[in-house]
């Protein structure tokens, strides 16, 4: 029943994303474009515009949103920490750093145009996650909420500074990099959709299959060990999947902060903390959320476009403060 | 017959500090072993070693098998632990927490139910008296109720060796009595044994079938509860007249009536 509501919201968000934008289009053209995309028939009129620009863009936004929310839900369970997310842990910044290095040094694997950014962003995400978690462990063995967020924020600032230094040497590509570090979905095409779909299916699939283990971690790492979870192996698997997912998302859409923090938190209020329900629902809700944020980013200052990271950060910051405030009032 | 738990020459260090050294003991079927000793003697560290929560040297055998060589799932099927403290961060229901106890009985990825799983969960819920609060969030439970939820998880896990870390911590007398009666009944089934780390020496003597006394990381006495926890041993380890203190307290109690 709850799922049905989530799916309806998802489809509605997708529809609205196709209908509205800088150029007005009719619902009929949207349907024609969608039918064309499915059957392979070449569209005509304004359907062309919808098919070539809005459908891939909306799908990319949806997949990035689903991916980031899924990683947020998984990290919040693994670390038993409701404030964990790629942006608060500093993983997104690490991924950005990796991607910026790839852009400046023009690293690439022959035959795969975007592979350099994707691979280096994923490596950046994984290395920063390892660094942040081991540092937090050293400071305070229990990986408490505040320590880990503090270390994450400090690491984010550090990574951003390094990015700034690199940007000053980037010459004419500086502007691209800056826009991209704030997140952008403009000009996304079929390749981006396929890359995200692949990542979501493979690494997201592993996370979905680990929902019982994540439940045990969310109750407590000691309890997970006591009931027989292979704690080391599961932790490593989740960290690798989360890094790959955040790295690939960042290489496609830049830094889109707070989605992975806000969505699972809101969804948990509806579904409860059981990851078997929480993760699929978070993915669906995250997809809807990012499609709507993208719609705002490209319509609110029409014809100008806001970076999507700005929109999600504005919304996310307010919700973040609310969560913190509500948790304090409950005395946690 | 091989012991359910056989610890040989166990040593644990945290950096430069030596927490345990040369600890050896074993637990056989039907026994309830009490591990006593002052704060910092290393009692809880023994438990952490047996559940592989810390690095150790020496050997630990469970049912004749080296625990360093068996999978976490298999270990959980033979050894279950009731932790001293429970901090649950999310609003899981009591039922979800109890059900996690069946994790080790399901095989690998994507598995759902397991043979006899539901009946084990139901029996555990009834044994712990949790039926009325099944769908309640664990965040809304009192300390004693939370302890019972995790006890039910442990009963659902159905290991042959129960390890209880300070089981009476935070529990009022009614819960203490209920818990100890429940464990006594559980122990009557053949093939089972219990180990508890315990501060309360009167409970240790009343319920234990054997006791070891730890002092600064080594075993100083091993035997019957009365023998190992004799007045002389306790005075030596605790540096005070434990029996005199207890008699004084009980005397006060009698005088008040």
Summarize the structure.
The complex is a heterodimer of chains A (332) and B (257). Chain A is an all-alpha fold.
How does this model look, in words?
The complex is a heterodimer of chains A (332) and B (257). Chain A is an all-alpha fold. Chain A has a single domain, classed as ABC transporter involved in vitamin B12 uptake, BtuC (Orthogonal Bundle), CATH 1.10.3470. Chain A has helices at 2-19, 27-39, 46-78, 91-105, 115-139, 145-168, 174-181, 190-209, 211-219, 221-226, 231-253, 259-271, 275-299, 308-329. Chain B is 37% helix and 23% strand. The relative contact order of chain B is 0.17. Chain B is globular, with a radius of gyration of 19 Å. The model of chain B has no long low-confidence stretch (mean pLDDT 86). Chain B is an alpha/beta fold. In chain B, helix 4 packs antiparallel against helix 5. Chain B has ten helices and ten strands. Chains A and B meet through helix 9 and helix 10 of A and helix 2 and helix 5 of B.
Say what oligomer this is. heterodimer
Average pLDDT level of chain B:
86
CATH class of chain A: Mainly Alpha
- Strand runs of chain A, count: 0
Spatial separation of the terminal alpha carbons of chain B: 51 Å
Classification by helices and strands of chain B: alpha/beta
Look at the structure and give the mean pLDDT of chain A: 85
Q: How far do the termini of chain A sit from each other? A: 32 Å
- Count the helices of chain A. How many? 14
- Beta-strand portion of chain A reads under 5%
Uncertain stretches of chain A:
none
What gyration radius of chain B follows from the Cα positions, in whole Å? 19 Å
Features:
heterodimer; A: 332 residues; mainly alpha; ABC transporter involved in vitamin B12 uptake, BtuC; 14 helices; 77% helix; B: 257 residues; four-stranded antiparallel sheet; 10 helices
